[in-house]
Design a protein that fits this description.
This protein is of the alpha+beta class and 168 residues long. It has 5 helices and 5 strands.
Length: 168
């Protein structure tokens, strides 16, 4: 909602400043607009340029992504625990070390309502049991998150095989 409000504010200020700039650039429109107050034309022109710059700066700050979802929040009776998603990803990626068919793994944790989902991007060796390895990897990660970090609210674990290399 904040981004939408920021965009609306940007659009409003930007359009008003463009209109004011257009009025100040045309002597005939300026006379109609101000009722022959030529003395303020230069100040209005500078003000409109300043408003354009301010609206562009405001748009930039409104579109900056807040990093509020960089932590997985777990609530318990004593309070809450916030675990960095980067730390969870590093923990998950260590699982690949125990699987010889997985050459490289990149994990991404996606906070979801009531827990999290995991997306894995793999580089694997070409083997006939590729699907079995992926199934085992999903189960192992779910178990490791529960036993190693106490995270039991794991929803989906999506596996994307990005690259396949020759086994050898």
């Amino acid at each position: 909602m904040a981004k939408f409000t920021g965009f609306v504010y940007f659009a409003l200020v930007f359009v008003l400043s463009i209109v004011l700039l257009a009025v100040t650039l045309s002597p005939a429109m300026w006379k109609v607009f101000t009722g022959n107050m030529d003395a303020l034309r230069t100040e209005a022109m500078m003000g409109s340029v300043l408003m354009i710059l301010m609206s562009v700066l405001f748009l930039q700050t409104a579109l900056i992504t807040r990093r509020s979802k960089d932590y997985l929040s777990i609530r318990n009776e004593s309070g809450g625990i916030n675990i960095s998603t980067d730390a969870i990803c590093a923990f998950i990626e260590k699982t690949a070390a125990g699987m010889p068919a997985v050459v490289k793994m990149k994990a991404k944790v996606l906070p979801a309502s009531g827990g999290m989902n995991v997306m894995l991007e793999l580089k694997m060796k070409a083997i006939p049991q590729m699907q079995d390895v992926c199934d085992t990897l999903q189960k192992t990660i779910k178990e490791n998150l529960a036993t190693g970090l106490g995270i039991r609210q794991v929803g989906r674990i999506e596996v994307i095989v990005r690259d396949i290399v020759e086994a050898g």
